Amino acid sequence: xxxxxxxxxxxxxxxGHIDIITRASRVFDELIVGIGVNPKKKYMFSxxxxxxxxxxxxxxxxxxxxxxxxxxxxxxxxxxxxxxIIKGLRNASDFDYEVILHQMSESQKLSIxxxxxxxxxxxxxxxxSSVKALQLEQGLIHKFVxxxxxxCLEAKISGxxxxxxxxxxxxxxxxxxxxxxxxxxxxxxxxxxxELDHIGHKILGELSEPLxxxxxxxxxxxxxxQIRNKDGTIxxxxxxxxxxxxxxKLDELNRILATPLLVRLRRELYTKKxxxxxxxxxxxxSNMAYxxxxxxxxxxxxxxxxxxxxxxxxxxxxQVEKRLQSQYNAEQKREKVNQAIEAxxxxxxxxxxxxxxxxxxxxxxxxxEILVNVDIYGELRFKALWQRIGGMTSCDEExxxxxxxxxxxxxxxxxxxxxxxxxxxxxxxxxxxxxPDALECAYFYHDIIYNPRSSHNEENSxxxxxxxxxxxxxxxxxxxxVADFILQTMHRHPPKDDDSKYLVDVDLSILGSERPDxxxxxxxxxxxxxxxxxxxxxxxxxxFLKELLERKSLFATGYFKDMFEKKARINxxxxxxxxDAGKQK
Length: 585
Known about the structure:
By secondary structure, this protein is an alpha/beta fold.
Protein backbone atom coordinates (compact mmCIF):
# COMPACT_ATOMS: atom_id res chain seq x y z
CA UNK A 1 0.00 0.00 0.00
CA UNK A 2 1.44 3.40 -1.01
CA UNK A 3 1.44 6.06 1.67
CA UNK A 4 2.62 9.64 2.02
CA UNK A 5 2.60 12.39 4.60
CA UNK A 6 1.72 16.05 4.29
CA UNK A 7 2.93 18.03 7.29
CA UNK A 8 2.04 21.54 8.38
CA UNK A 9 1.25 23.49 11.55
CA UNK A 10 -2.47 23.78 10.74
CA UNK A 11 -2.85 27.04 12.65
CA UNK A 12 -5.40 26.98 11.05
CA UNK A 13 -5.99 24.79 8.00
CA UNK A 14 -7.04 26.71 4.87
CA UNK A 15 -8.57 25.85 1.50
CA GLY A 16 -5.02 26.03 0.11
CA HIS A 17 -3.95 23.19 2.41
CA ILE A 18 -7.14 21.26 1.70
CA ASP A 19 -6.58 21.46 -2.06
CA ILE A 20 -3.04 20.04 -1.79
CA ILE A 21 -4.27 17.28 0.55
CA THR A 22 -7.20 16.41 -1.73
CA ARG A 23 -4.98 16.15 -4.81
CA ALA A 24 -2.38 14.06 -2.99
CA SER A 25 -5.07 11.75 -1.60
CA ARG A 26 -6.00 10.76 -5.17
CA VAL A 27 -2.47 9.49 -5.82
CA PHE A 28 -1.71 7.55 -2.63
CA ASP A 29 -3.66 4.77 -0.95
CA GLU A 30 -3.19 6.48 2.42
CA LEU A 31 -2.29 10.08 3.16
CA ILE A 32 -1.21 11.06 6.65
CA VAL A 33 -1.77 14.71 7.56
CA GLY A 34 0.76 15.53 10.24
CA ILE A 35 0.23 18.45 12.60
CA GLY A 36 3.67 19.55 13.68
CA VAL A 37 4.60 20.34 17.27
CA ASN A 38 7.28 22.99 17.72
CA PRO A 39 7.76 23.90 21.42
CA LYS A 40 9.46 27.17 20.44
CA LYS A 41 6.58 28.35 18.28
CA LYS A 42 3.53 30.13 19.68
CA TYR A 43 0.30 28.89 18.14
CA MET A 44 -3.13 30.48 18.21
CA PHE A 45 -4.81 27.08 18.47
CA SER A 46 -3.70 24.30 20.78
CA UNK A 47 -2.49 21.02 19.30
CA UNK A 48 -5.81 19.34 20.09
CA UNK A 49 -7.69 22.22 18.44
CA UNK A 50 -5.49 22.17 15.34
CA UNK A 51 -6.05 18.44 14.96
CA UNK A 52 -9.80 18.94 15.33
CA UNK A 53 -9.87 21.76 12.76
CA UNK A 54 -8.00 19.59 10.27
CA UNK A 55 -10.02 16.45 11.01
CA UNK A 56 -13.37 18.21 10.54
CA UNK A 57 -12.20 19.98 7.40
CA UNK A 58 -10.95 16.71 5.85
CA UNK A 59 -13.77 14.43 7.01
CA UNK A 60 -14.90 13.80 3.43
CA UNK A 61 -11.58 12.16 2.46
CA UNK A 62 -11.77 8.52 3.52
CA UNK A 63 -8.08 7.70 3.01
CA UNK A 64 -6.77 10.70 4.97
CA UNK A 65 -5.75 10.41 8.63
CA UNK A 66 -4.75 13.33 10.87
CA UNK A 67 -1.99 12.82 13.45
CA UNK A 68 0.29 14.96 15.59
CA UNK A 69 4.03 14.47 15.56
CA UNK A 70 7.16 16.07 16.99
CA UNK A 71 10.79 15.92 15.98
CA UNK A 72 12.12 15.53 12.46
CA UNK A 73 9.47 14.83 9.86
CA UNK A 74 11.72 12.33 8.09
CA UNK A 75 12.15 10.40 11.35
CA UNK A 76 8.39 10.15 11.80
CA UNK A 77 7.98 9.07 8.18
CA UNK A 78 10.74 6.44 8.50
CA UNK A 79 9.31 4.98 11.71
CA UNK A 80 5.85 4.69 10.16
CA UNK A 81 6.96 3.17 6.82
CA UNK A 82 6.07 6.32 4.89
CA UNK A 83 8.33 6.84 1.89
CA UNK A 84 7.02 10.13 0.48
CA ILE A 85 6.65 13.62 1.91
CA ILE A 86 4.18 15.92 0.14
CA LYS A 87 5.00 19.63 -0.07
CA GLY A 88 2.73 22.37 -1.40
CA LEU A 89 4.34 25.28 -3.25
CA ARG A 90 2.74 28.70 -3.61
CA ASN A 91 5.65 30.53 -5.24
CA ALA A 92 9.35 30.42 -6.10
CA SER A 93 10.35 31.30 -2.54
CA ASP A 94 8.47 28.26 -1.26
CA PHE A 95 10.26 26.12 -3.83
CA ASP A 96 13.73 27.35 -2.85
CA TYR A 97 13.00 26.80 0.84
CA GLU A 98 11.47 23.35 0.39
CA VAL A 99 14.33 22.16 -1.84
CA ILE A 100 16.76 23.02 0.96
CA LEU A 101 14.60 21.08 3.45
CA HIS A 102 14.49 18.13 1.06
CA GLN A 103 18.28 18.14 0.73
CA MET A 104 18.64 18.27 4.50
CA SER A 105 16.23 15.35 4.80
CA GLU A 106 18.26 13.37 2.26
CA SER A 107 21.34 13.88 4.41
CA GLN A 108 19.71 11.65 7.04
CA LYS A 109 19.99 8.68 4.62
CA LEU A 110 16.47 7.39 5.34
CA SER A 111 15.33 7.02 1.69
CA ILE A 112 12.43 9.44 2.12
CA UNK A 113 11.52 11.27 -1.08
CA UNK A 114 9.68 14.58 -1.53
CA UNK A 115 6.87 15.24 -4.01
CA UNK A 116 6.07 18.86 -4.80
CA UNK A 117 2.57 20.03 -5.68
CA UNK A 118 2.17 23.61 -6.93
CA UNK A 119 -0.78 25.54 -5.55
CA UNK A 120 -3.58 26.37 -7.93
CA UNK A 121 -3.29 29.88 -9.28
CA UNK A 122 -6.36 31.14 -7.44
CA UNK A 123 -5.00 29.88 -4.10
CA UNK A 124 -1.42 31.18 -4.13
CA UNK A 125 -2.36 34.11 -1.88
CA UNK A 126 -3.98 31.99 0.83
CA UNK A 127 -2.01 31.33 4.00
CA UNK A 128 -2.82 30.75 7.66
CA SER A 129 -1.16 34.02 8.65
CA SER A 130 -2.96 36.11 6.02
CA VAL A 131 -6.33 34.64 7.03
CA LYS A 132 -5.67 35.52 10.69
CA ALA A 133 -4.61 39.05 9.72
CA LEU A 134 -7.77 39.49 7.64
CA GLN A 135 -10.01 38.30 10.46
CA LEU A 136 -8.30 40.75 12.81
CA GLU A 137 -9.72 43.56 10.66
CA GLN A 138 -13.17 41.93 10.28
CA GLY A 139 -12.49 40.97 6.68
CA LEU A 140 -14.41 38.28 4.81
CA ILE A 141 -12.57 34.95 5.09
CA HIS A 142 -15.23 32.45 4.01
CA LYS A 143 -13.48 31.91 0.66
CA PHE A 144 -10.21 31.02 2.37
CA VAL A 145 -11.25 28.59 5.13
CA UNK A 146 -14.17 26.22 5.84
CA UNK A 147 -17.00 27.75 7.84
CA UNK A 148 -16.14 25.79 10.99
CA UNK A 149 -12.61 27.19 10.86
CA UNK A 150 -14.04 30.65 10.23
CA UNK A 151 -16.27 30.28 13.28
CA CYS A 152 -13.28 29.25 15.40
CA LEU A 153 -11.17 32.17 14.15
CA GLU A 154 -13.95 34.64 14.93
CA ALA A 155 -14.10 33.28 18.46
CA LYS A 156 -10.32 33.22 19.00
CA ILE A 157 -9.39 36.53 17.37
CA SER A 158 -12.47 38.71 17.64
CA GLY A 159 -14.41 37.18 20.53
CA UNK A 160 -17.43 37.11 18.21
CA UNK A 161 -20.06 34.41 17.73
CA UNK A 162 -22.22 35.04 14.67
CA UNK A 163 -25.85 33.94 14.51
CA UNK A 164 -28.30 34.89 11.80
CA UNK A 165 -31.92 35.75 12.59
CA UNK A 166 -34.37 35.61 9.71
CA UNK A 167 -38.04 35.05 8.97
CA UNK A 168 -40.99 36.37 7.05
CA UNK A 169 -42.13 39.95 7.42
CA UNK A 170 -44.13 40.30 10.64
CA UNK A 171 -42.66 37.17 12.20
CA UNK A 172 -40.91 39.29 14.82
CA UNK A 173 -37.19 38.96 14.03
CA UNK A 174 -36.34 42.14 15.92
CA UNK A 175 -38.53 41.14 18.86
CA UNK A 176 -36.81 37.76 19.19
CA UNK A 177 -33.38 39.38 18.86
CA UNK A 178 -34.22 41.90 21.57
CA UNK A 179 -35.52 39.14 23.86
CA UNK A 180 -32.25 37.24 23.43
CA UNK A 181 -30.29 40.42 24.16
CA UNK A 182 -32.30 40.96 27.34
CA UNK A 183 -31.79 37.41 28.58
CA UNK A 184 -28.10 37.70 27.76
CA UNK A 185 -27.83 40.93 29.79
CA UNK A 186 -29.31 39.22 32.86
CA UNK A 187 -26.76 36.40 32.51
CA UNK A 188 -23.87 38.82 31.80
CA UNK A 189 -23.55 37.39 28.29
CA UNK A 190 -23.15 40.15 25.68
CA UNK A 191 -25.69 39.74 22.87
CA UNK A 192 -25.68 42.38 20.13
CA UNK A 193 -28.51 42.83 17.65
CA UNK A 194 -27.34 44.19 14.29
CA GLU A 195 -30.23 44.76 11.91
CA LEU A 196 -29.19 44.80 8.26
CA ASP A 197 -32.39 46.66 7.44
CA HIS A 198 -31.27 49.50 9.72
CA ILE A 199 -27.87 49.55 8.02
CA GLY A 200 -29.69 49.77 4.70
CA HIS A 201 -31.78 52.64 6.06
CA LYS A 202 -28.60 54.51 7.00
CA ILE A 203 -27.16 53.98 3.53
CA LEU A 204 -30.35 55.39 1.99
CA GLY A 205 -30.38 58.26 4.44
CA GLU A 206 -27.85 59.63 6.88
CA LEU A 207 -24.42 58.23 5.92
CA SER A 208 -22.33 61.01 4.41
CA GLU A 209 -19.25 59.21 3.04
CA PRO A 210 -18.77 59.61 -0.75
CA LEU A 211 -19.58 55.94 -1.39
CA UNK A 212 -23.05 56.24 0.13
CA UNK A 213 -23.83 59.52 -1.64
CA UNK A 214 -22.93 57.79 -4.92
CA UNK A 215 -25.12 54.81 -4.01
CA UNK A 216 -28.09 57.14 -3.43
CA UNK A 217 -27.42 58.80 -6.81
CA UNK A 218 -27.33 55.41 -8.49
CA UNK A 219 -30.59 54.34 -6.86
CA UNK A 220 -32.28 57.58 -7.92
CA UNK A 221 -31.13 57.07 -11.52
CA UNK A 222 -32.31 53.47 -11.49
CA UNK A 223 -35.72 53.96 -9.86
CA UNK A 224 -36.61 57.56 -10.71
CA UNK A 225 -35.99 60.99 -9.23
CA GLN A 226 -39.35 60.97 -7.46
CA ILE A 227 -37.89 58.75 -4.72
CA ARG A 228 -35.39 61.44 -3.66
CA ASN A 229 -36.07 63.72 -0.72
CA LYS A 230 -35.08 67.38 -0.93
CA ASP A 231 -31.91 66.73 1.08
CA GLY A 232 -30.74 64.04 -1.34
CA THR A 233 -31.70 61.08 0.80
CA ILE A 234 -33.99 58.34 -0.48
CA UNK A 235 -37.64 58.09 0.54
CA UNK A 236 -37.96 54.52 1.74
CA UNK A 237 -41.74 54.66 1.40
CA UNK A 238 -41.58 55.76 -2.25
CA UNK A 239 -38.86 53.25 -3.02
CA UNK A 240 -40.86 50.49 -1.32
CA UNK A 241 -43.88 51.17 -3.50
CA UNK A 242 -41.71 50.51 -6.54
CA UNK A 243 -39.64 47.50 -5.52
CA UNK A 244 -42.35 45.58 -3.65
CA UNK A 245 -44.50 45.68 -6.77
CA UNK A 246 -41.79 44.49 -9.15
CA UNK A 247 -39.54 41.56 -8.19
CA UNK A 248 -36.92 42.46 -10.82
CA LYS A 249 -36.55 45.94 -9.34
CA LEU A 250 -36.28 44.51 -5.82
CA ASP A 251 -33.54 42.16 -7.04
CA GLU A 252 -31.72 45.12 -8.60
CA LEU A 253 -31.93 47.14 -5.38
CA ASN A 254 -30.54 44.20 -3.41
CA ARG A 255 -27.70 43.88 -5.92
CA ILE A 256 -26.80 47.57 -5.58
CA LEU A 257 -26.84 47.46 -1.78
CA ALA A 258 -25.11 44.07 -1.30
CA THR A 259 -21.46 45.20 -1.13
CA PRO A 260 -22.10 48.49 0.73
CA LEU A 261 -24.10 46.53 3.32
CA LEU A 262 -21.20 44.15 3.92
CA VAL A 263 -18.71 47.01 4.19
CA ARG A 264 -20.91 48.81 6.68
CA LEU A 265 -21.53 45.59 8.58
CA ARG A 266 -17.78 45.33 9.17
CA ARG A 267 -17.89 48.81 10.68
CA GLU A 268 -20.75 47.76 12.94
CA LEU A 269 -18.80 44.71 14.10
CA TYR A 270 -15.74 46.64 15.23
CA THR A 271 -15.17 46.46 19.01
CA LYS A 272 -18.24 44.29 19.57
CA LYS A 273 -17.65 41.03 21.44
CA UNK A 274 -20.09 38.27 22.32
CA UNK A 275 -23.00 36.81 20.41
CA UNK A 276 -23.66 38.87 17.28
CA UNK A 277 -27.20 38.51 15.96
CA UNK A 278 -27.25 39.36 12.24
CA UNK A 279 -30.92 40.24 11.82
CA UNK A 280 -31.81 40.06 8.13
CA UNK A 281 -34.95 39.06 6.24
CA UNK A 282 -33.05 37.89 3.16
CA UNK A 283 -30.29 35.72 4.64
CA UNK A 284 -31.59 32.66 2.79
CA UNK A 285 -32.60 34.35 -0.47
CA SER A 286 -29.33 36.27 -0.77
CA ASN A 287 -27.10 33.27 0.03
CA MET A 288 -25.69 35.19 2.99
CA ALA A 289 -25.79 32.43 5.59
CA TYR A 290 -22.00 32.17 5.36
CA UNK A 291 -21.76 35.43 7.33
CA UNK A 292 -23.13 33.62 10.37
CA UNK A 293 -21.49 30.27 9.50
CA UNK A 294 -24.89 28.77 8.63
CA UNK A 295 -26.00 29.20 12.25
CA UNK A 296 -29.47 30.64 11.73
CA UNK A 297 -32.57 31.24 13.82
CA UNK A 298 -35.68 31.06 11.63
CA UNK A 299 -38.47 32.97 13.35
CA UNK A 300 -41.95 31.66 12.57
CA UNK A 301 -45.39 32.90 13.55
CA UNK A 302 -49.03 31.88 13.32
CA UNK A 303 -50.63 33.41 10.24
CA UNK A 304 -53.32 35.23 12.19
CA UNK A 305 -50.74 36.85 14.47
CA UNK A 306 -48.57 37.78 11.49
CA UNK A 307 -51.43 39.47 9.64
CA UNK A 308 -52.52 41.39 12.75
CA UNK A 309 -49.00 42.73 13.23
CA UNK A 310 -48.66 43.81 9.61
CA UNK A 311 -51.99 45.60 9.59
CA UNK A 312 -50.81 47.60 12.62
CA UNK A 313 -48.07 49.03 10.36
CA UNK A 314 -50.75 50.85 8.36
CA UNK A 315 -50.26 48.50 5.43
CA UNK A 316 -53.21 47.55 3.27
CA UNK A 317 -54.05 43.92 2.59
CA UNK A 318 -52.64 44.35 -0.91
CA GLN A 319 -49.38 45.83 0.38
CA VAL A 320 -49.05 43.02 2.92
CA GLU A 321 -49.53 40.45 0.18
CA LYS A 322 -46.94 42.13 -2.07
CA ARG A 323 -44.35 42.18 0.71
CA LEU A 324 -44.96 38.54 1.53
CA GLN A 325 -44.60 37.61 -2.15
CA SER A 326 -41.27 39.49 -2.36
CA GLN A 327 -39.61 37.08 0.07
CA TYR A 328 -39.35 33.35 0.53
CA ASN A 329 -41.94 31.92 2.85
CA ALA A 330 -40.76 30.21 6.06
CA GLU A 331 -40.58 26.76 4.46
CA GLN A 332 -38.52 28.04 1.54
CA LYS A 333 -36.15 29.80 3.95
CA ARG A 334 -35.80 26.60 5.94
CA GLU A 335 -34.99 24.56 2.84
CA LYS A 336 -32.45 27.12 1.61
CA VAL A 337 -30.57 27.28 4.92
CA ASN A 338 -30.56 23.50 5.26
CA GLN A 339 -29.12 23.24 1.73
CA ALA A 340 -26.29 25.57 2.77
CA ILE A 341 -25.65 23.53 5.93
CA GLU A 342 -25.50 20.31 3.91
CA ALA A 343 -23.26 21.81 1.23
CA UNK A 344 -20.79 23.24 3.76
CA UNK A 345 -21.12 20.37 6.24
CA UNK A 346 -21.50 22.93 8.99
CA UNK A 347 -24.16 25.01 10.71
CA UNK A 348 -27.33 24.75 12.73
CA UNK A 349 -30.90 25.88 12.05
CA UNK A 350 -33.22 26.70 14.94
CA UNK A 351 -36.94 27.13 14.35
CA UNK A 352 -38.26 29.62 16.92
CA UNK A 353 -42.01 30.17 17.09
CA UNK A 354 -42.77 33.78 17.97
CA UNK A 355 -46.54 33.76 18.06
CA UNK A 356 -48.27 35.87 20.68
CA UNK A 357 -48.51 32.98 23.17
CA UNK A 358 -44.78 32.02 23.12
CA UNK A 359 -43.38 31.68 26.65
CA UNK A 360 -40.28 33.32 28.15
CA UNK A 361 -38.61 29.95 28.79
CA UNK A 362 -38.72 29.20 25.06
CA UNK A 363 -36.43 32.17 24.38
CA UNK A 364 -34.17 31.19 27.29
CA UNK A 365 -33.88 27.66 25.90
CA UNK A 366 -33.01 29.11 22.50
CA UNK A 367 -30.16 31.16 23.96
CA UNK A 368 -28.84 28.07 25.78
CA GLU A 369 -28.88 26.11 22.53
CA ILE A 370 -27.09 28.92 20.71
CA LEU A 371 -24.40 28.99 23.41
CA VAL A 372 -23.88 25.24 23.15
CA ASN A 373 -23.47 25.55 19.40
CA VAL A 374 -21.25 28.64 19.08
CA ASP A 375 -19.32 28.93 22.37
CA ILE A 376 -16.79 26.37 21.17
CA TYR A 377 -14.12 27.15 23.75
CA GLY A 378 -16.37 28.04 26.68
CA GLU A 379 -15.02 31.60 26.82
CA LEU A 380 -18.42 33.30 26.72
CA ARG A 381 -19.81 31.11 29.47
CA PHE A 382 -16.75 31.35 31.71
CA LYS A 383 -16.45 35.14 31.52
CA ALA A 384 -20.18 35.57 32.08
CA LEU A 385 -19.98 33.22 35.06
CA TRP A 386 -17.02 35.15 36.49
CA GLN A 387 -19.06 38.35 36.38
CA ARG A 388 -22.14 36.74 37.89
CA ILE A 389 -20.22 35.39 40.89
CA GLY A 390 -18.48 38.72 41.42
CA GLY A 391 -14.92 37.68 40.58
CA MET A 392 -12.73 40.74 41.13
CA THR A 393 -9.61 39.48 39.36
CA SER A 394 -9.24 39.60 35.58
CA CYS A 395 -11.60 37.12 33.95
CA ASP A 396 -9.35 37.19 30.86
CA GLU A 397 -6.34 36.06 32.90
CA GLU A 398 -8.35 33.43 34.75
CA UNK A 399 -9.74 32.04 31.50
CA UNK A 400 -6.25 32.03 29.94
CA UNK A 401 -5.06 30.03 32.95
CA UNK A 402 -7.74 27.44 32.31
CA UNK A 403 -6.80 27.20 28.64
CA UNK A 404 -3.12 26.81 29.49
CA UNK A 405 -3.85 24.02 31.96
CA UNK A 406 -6.15 22.09 29.64
CA UNK A 407 -3.60 22.40 26.80
CA UNK A 408 -0.78 20.64 28.67
CA UNK A 409 0.99 18.18 26.39
CA UNK A 410 0.59 15.18 28.70
CA UNK A 411 -3.20 15.42 28.38
CA UNK A 412 -5.17 13.54 25.75
CA UNK A 413 -8.66 13.13 27.21
CA UNK A 414 -8.69 15.61 30.09
CA UNK A 415 -8.50 18.56 27.72
CA UNK A 416 -10.76 21.53 27.03
CA UNK A 417 -13.02 19.42 24.80
CA UNK A 418 -13.96 17.30 27.82
CA UNK A 419 -14.92 20.46 29.72
CA UNK A 420 -16.98 21.90 26.86
CA UNK A 421 -18.82 18.62 26.29
CA UNK A 422 -19.80 18.60 29.97
CA UNK A 423 -20.86 22.25 29.96
CA UNK A 424 -23.08 21.55 26.96
CA UNK A 425 -24.84 18.78 28.90
CA UNK A 426 -25.16 21.00 31.99
CA UNK A 427 -26.96 23.57 29.84
CA UNK A 428 -29.77 21.07 29.32
CA UNK A 429 -30.38 20.59 33.05
CA UNK A 430 -29.49 24.06 34.32
CA UNK A 431 -33.13 24.80 35.13
CA UNK A 432 -33.19 21.71 37.40
CA UNK A 433 -30.20 22.74 39.53
CA UNK A 434 -30.28 24.41 42.94
CA UNK A 435 -26.82 25.94 42.53
CA PRO A 436 -26.25 26.14 38.74
CA ASP A 437 -23.42 28.70 38.86
CA ALA A 438 -21.47 26.73 41.47
CA LEU A 439 -21.88 23.49 39.54
CA GLU A 440 -20.85 25.13 36.26
CA CYS A 441 -17.85 26.70 37.98
CA ALA A 442 -16.88 23.31 39.44
CA TYR A 443 -16.97 21.70 36.03
CA PHE A 444 -14.67 24.35 34.58
CA TYR A 445 -12.11 23.60 37.32
CA HIS A 446 -12.61 19.93 38.12
CA ASP A 447 -9.64 18.75 36.01
CA ILE A 448 -7.52 21.91 36.24
CA ILE A 449 -4.81 19.87 37.99
CA TYR A 450 -4.14 16.63 36.15
CA ASN A 451 -1.13 14.40 36.51
CA PRO A 452 -1.65 10.79 35.33
CA ARG A 453 0.92 9.65 37.89
CA SER A 454 -1.03 11.14 40.79
CA SER A 455 -4.09 9.83 42.63
CA HIS A 456 -4.91 13.23 44.12
CA ASN A 457 -5.92 15.23 41.05
CA GLU A 458 -9.46 15.97 42.22
CA GLU A 459 -8.32 17.08 45.68
CA ASN A 460 -5.63 19.29 44.15
CA SER A 461 -8.12 20.74 41.64
CA UNK A 462 -10.54 21.52 44.48
CA UNK A 463 -7.80 23.31 46.43
CA UNK A 464 -6.76 25.24 43.31
CA UNK A 465 -10.33 26.33 42.51
CA UNK A 466 -11.12 27.38 46.07
CA UNK A 467 -7.93 29.45 46.34
CA UNK A 468 -8.49 31.22 43.02
CA UNK A 469 -12.09 31.99 43.88
CA UNK A 470 -11.17 33.39 47.29
CA UNK A 471 -8.31 35.40 45.75
CA UNK A 472 -10.93 36.87 43.40
CA UNK A 473 -13.01 37.89 46.46
CA UNK A 474 -15.79 35.47 45.63
CA UNK A 475 -17.90 34.59 48.67
CA UNK A 476 -16.37 31.83 50.79
CA UNK A 477 -19.64 29.88 50.84
CA UNK A 478 -19.59 29.74 47.03
CA UNK A 479 -15.90 28.72 46.93
CA UNK A 480 -16.53 25.93 49.45
CA UNK A 481 -19.49 24.64 47.45
CA VAL A 482 -17.41 24.58 44.25
CA ALA A 483 -14.60 22.69 45.97
CA ASP A 484 -17.09 20.18 47.38
CA PHE A 485 -18.62 19.63 43.95
CA ILE A 486 -15.16 18.97 42.47
CA LEU A 487 -14.49 16.30 45.11
CA GLN A 488 -17.66 14.52 44.00
CA THR A 489 -15.99 13.82 40.63
CA MET A 490 -13.68 11.32 42.37
CA HIS A 491 -16.64 8.89 42.03
CA ARG A 492 -15.65 7.06 45.22
CA HIS A 493 -18.98 7.51 46.97
CA PRO A 494 -22.57 8.00 45.80
CA PRO A 495 -23.33 11.70 45.25
CA LYS A 496 -24.90 13.24 48.32
CA ASP A 497 -27.35 15.74 46.76
CA ASP A 498 -29.30 16.24 43.55
CA ASP A 499 -26.89 18.78 42.07
CA SER A 500 -23.97 16.42 42.69
CA LYS A 501 -25.90 13.63 40.98
CA TYR A 502 -26.18 15.71 37.83
CA LEU A 503 -22.51 16.64 38.06
CA VAL A 504 -21.16 13.09 38.34
CA ASP A 505 -23.52 11.93 35.61
CA VAL A 506 -22.15 14.59 33.28
CA ASP A 507 -18.60 13.54 34.14
CA LEU A 508 -19.43 9.91 33.26
CA SER A 509 -21.40 10.76 30.13
CA ILE A 510 -18.55 9.73 27.81
CA LEU A 511 -19.30 6.11 28.77
CA GLY A 512 -22.63 6.40 26.97
CA SER A 513 -21.31 8.12 23.84
CA GLU A 514 -21.46 6.68 20.34
CA ARG A 515 -18.97 3.86 19.81
CA PRO A 516 -16.42 5.86 17.71
CA ASP A 517 -16.36 8.61 20.36
CA UNK A 518 -16.02 6.04 23.14
CA UNK A 519 -13.13 4.36 21.36
CA UNK A 520 -11.39 7.72 20.92
CA UNK A 521 -11.86 8.29 24.65
CA UNK A 522 -10.29 4.93 25.48
CA UNK A 523 -7.33 5.59 23.18
CA UNK A 524 -6.86 9.01 24.77
CA UNK A 525 -6.92 7.54 28.28
CA UNK A 526 -4.33 4.96 27.23
CA UNK A 527 -2.05 7.73 25.91
CA UNK A 528 -2.33 9.57 29.22
CA UNK A 529 -1.22 6.43 31.03
CA UNK A 530 1.48 5.51 28.53
CA UNK A 531 3.96 5.20 31.41
CA UNK A 532 2.10 2.10 32.71
CA UNK A 533 2.91 -1.26 31.04
CA UNK A 534 0.09 -2.83 29.02
CA UNK A 535 -0.48 -5.75 31.38
CA UNK A 536 -0.78 -3.51 34.42
CA UNK A 537 -2.94 -0.96 32.63
CA UNK A 538 -5.30 -3.58 31.20
CA UNK A 539 -5.71 -5.20 34.60
CA UNK A 540 -6.54 -1.91 36.32
CA UNK A 541 -8.78 -0.80 33.47
CA UNK A 542 -10.66 -4.10 33.47
CA UNK A 543 -11.20 -3.92 37.21
CA PHE A 544 -12.57 -0.37 36.91
CA LEU A 545 -14.95 -1.29 34.09
CA LYS A 546 -16.22 -4.40 35.90
CA GLU A 547 -16.94 -2.32 39.01
CA LEU A 548 -18.99 0.03 36.85
CA LEU A 549 -21.02 -2.84 35.38
CA GLU A 550 -21.77 -4.18 38.85
CA ARG A 551 -23.54 -0.98 39.78
CA LYS A 552 -27.32 -1.15 39.77
CA SER A 553 -27.26 1.99 37.67
CA LEU A 554 -24.31 3.84 36.17
CA PHE A 555 -26.18 7.14 36.25
CA ALA A 556 -27.77 8.74 39.29
CA THR A 557 -30.42 10.86 37.57
CA GLY A 558 -33.33 9.75 35.44
CA TYR A 559 -32.48 12.41 32.86
CA PHE A 560 -29.01 11.06 32.10
CA LYS A 561 -29.92 7.44 32.72
CA ASP A 562 -32.44 7.61 29.90
CA MET A 563 -29.86 9.28 27.70
CA PHE A 564 -26.76 7.17 28.36
CA GLU A 565 -27.31 4.02 30.50
CA LYS A 566 -28.04 1.47 27.77
CA LYS A 567 -25.28 2.63 25.46
CA ALA A 568 -22.76 2.85 28.33
CA ARG A 569 -23.28 -0.78 29.32
CA ILE A 570 -22.85 -1.88 25.71
CA ASN A 571 -19.62 0.13 25.38
CA UNK A 572 -18.21 -1.23 28.64
CA UNK A 573 -19.01 -4.84 27.78
CA UNK A 574 -17.36 -4.50 24.37
CA UNK A 575 -14.26 -2.98 25.97
CA UNK A 576 -14.06 -5.76 28.53
CA UNK A 577 -14.36 -8.26 25.69
CA UNK A 578 -11.37 -6.69 23.96
CA UNK A 579 -9.36 -6.75 27.17
CA ASP A 580 -10.17 -10.44 27.70
CA ALA A 581 -9.26 -11.24 24.11
CA GLY A 582 -5.93 -9.48 24.62
CA LYS A 583 -5.19 -11.60 27.70
CA GLN A 584 -5.86 -14.81 25.77
CA LYS A 585 -3.32 -13.81 23.15
